[in-house]
Amino acid sequence: MEKQSQETSFTVGLFQPEDAPGVGDLFRAVYGEGYPVKLYYNPNELREAFKKKEVLPFVAKDQDGALIGVTAIYRSSPFERLYESGSGIVLPQYRGAGIASRLQGMLADRKLLKELQIEGLWGEAVANHVFMQKISVHMGFCEAGLEVDLMPAEAYDREKSAAGRVGAVIGFKTVKPRPHTVYLPGCYEEELRFLYEDMDDARPLEKAHAGVPADGTTSVDPTIYDFAQVARFAIHSVGPDFSEEFQKKEKEIREANKIQVCQAWVKLSHPWCAAAVEALKGQGYFLGGLLPRWFDDDGLLMQKILHTPNWEGVKLYSDRAKRIMDMAYKDWENVGGVK
Fold first, then answer.
1. Can you tell which superkingdom this protein's organism belongs to (predicted)?
2. Low-confidence ranges of the chain (pLDDT < 50)
3. Which string of DSSP letters, residue by residue, matches 210-228?
């Protein structure tokens, strides 16, 4: 599983428990104690997360076995076999040697990913520059959405690359196909058909047509990201009381936390998903994009920004991403902007 570089003296391979202290040292060397995911600083917690397959790091080592780079995939969606790609760093003195590319290349090893029981990958490529977006596209990730104002500008103070909050282009890559019927809300049918065009896993597309079941129950699971001031709401099921229950849940979260961005995830495998989408639009949410395999079934990202978004700070690499931003901006205007 370990691969020797032919050009320089380093190897890349899957993290092993004995690598945990070196991972913490890497993050301290680059971020001090300031990296928001504290797991990487704690060897025992990192080993436990690796054992449970919650976090799967890949590491680069020099010829003496010292860690000089790391990237990781980790669970961050409701479906446990869809992993997010991120947390990539290389020691400054080794940058430009191809280490980051070789680490990312591990994510193209389908045999390895299947051995790890991974069925899909996704990632967030920041939109204050196009470098990571370009890498994502070249690695075969299909751009599926735009998270507006996802991160605070303070997260980029060290590199001085952001004058306001920073958005991210989200991309997905299939490891194990899972075709299944999805239902398109009428208000986003055109946009979703466009987003599905270039996906690497086929879907039968139908119009959302059903009413919410009278005996349905509403289930909403929130997650708070304090540093980013973001609240994410996973909508697992929708009942007749959805609009009132969701509004109540969001209000509770906003009153208890300093929130700038709200995101809502809607299942597209329910024929009555349009009812939830229309209710969210009525509460100021606008289109974010497509979330393939998010719940195992596909999801829809909607978002609400509690300030005037930093649209002018968004930098995009591809024509597809630019069209996604146009769709998001138009819908933001349609729902009335800041709520």
1. Bacteria
2. 4-6
3. PPPPTT---EEEEEEETTT
